[in-house]
Write a structure and sequence with these properties.
Elements lengths: L4 E3 L6 E6 L1 H12 L3 H6 L1 H14 L3 H11 L5 E6 L8 H15 E3 L10 E6 L15 E4 L11 E10 L6 E5 L6 H5 L8 E3 L11 E3 L2 E3 L5 E3 L6 E2 L3 H15 L5 E3 L6 E5 L3 E5 L9 E11 L2
Helix pairs in contact: 1-3, 3-5
Amino acid sequence: MSLEIKDHSISKRIKVIQIQETELDKLIFPFNKHSIQSLEYKPFSRFSLAKSVDDVFSGELSKALIKNLKDRDTGTTIVEPNIKNSKFDKDFLVKFSTALAYLIGLPNFDSMTGKYYARFHVKHSDSSDSYLRKAYTNMDLHTDGTYVKEKTDWLLMTKMEEINVKGGESVLLHLDDWEHCDELSSDPIAEQNFVWGSPKSKNVDYKIEHPVFSKDKEGRPIISYIDQFPEPKNMEQGLFLQKLSDALEESKNKIAIPLVPGSTIFSNNYFWLHGRKPFKKDVNLSRELLRIRGVFFK
């Protein structure tokens, strides 16, 4: 099968890959070989799953994903499978998302769920201890993996289902498009070690230290930041974080993207920040998401 890659209508930095029903049909048989439980218990089965997806596209899908995600000029891909037919259920989406992840690298252990992936709902009512499930609160721009020891090169998010949803668009910002990147990344405080913790729901019982900004191999700024988890040691650090937060949220170059159910957004975690707009209030609101984050193959 030929692989068609398009520029997103909102930004050329974002590539879109549409997967047609005829191509998904070729995955039904190899996917049926693996249950969700076997994927969770037997890591090698995930590679078999990924190979079956790549074979449909003669190896071109893995090459395209890796190239785009590592390219500083792009770094985000949206994969849109045509799942309108009911035969492509939630289990199919878990398997498809798993395959996409294992085409480019190794997922991190997700402490929140104790698996290589996390599934969670955003609903009208919520009593959690983080912004992740707060439907009517803006989720400010951030990167993932700020509070864990493992590297987090990339992030995958799949929209499993939406019911009675208005608003809640994904928000993205490429570091090179951010108006205040040079100013804040060159601030001496930006390279100080900050303490990073996490709420109880994350199931991480340690804290780590790292700067907000560092440099990639070419000397370009990369970022590791989320507003809820840093623990500033002094006034300097606290005021720097406030300035950083304000500058990110006020950026005129943020991109708001509605994602259709079934779609997967894949982003480089070092130079893309992501967030979410608030939802419109609805007592029957429900969105289910799947998250995988990890490192590139060596």
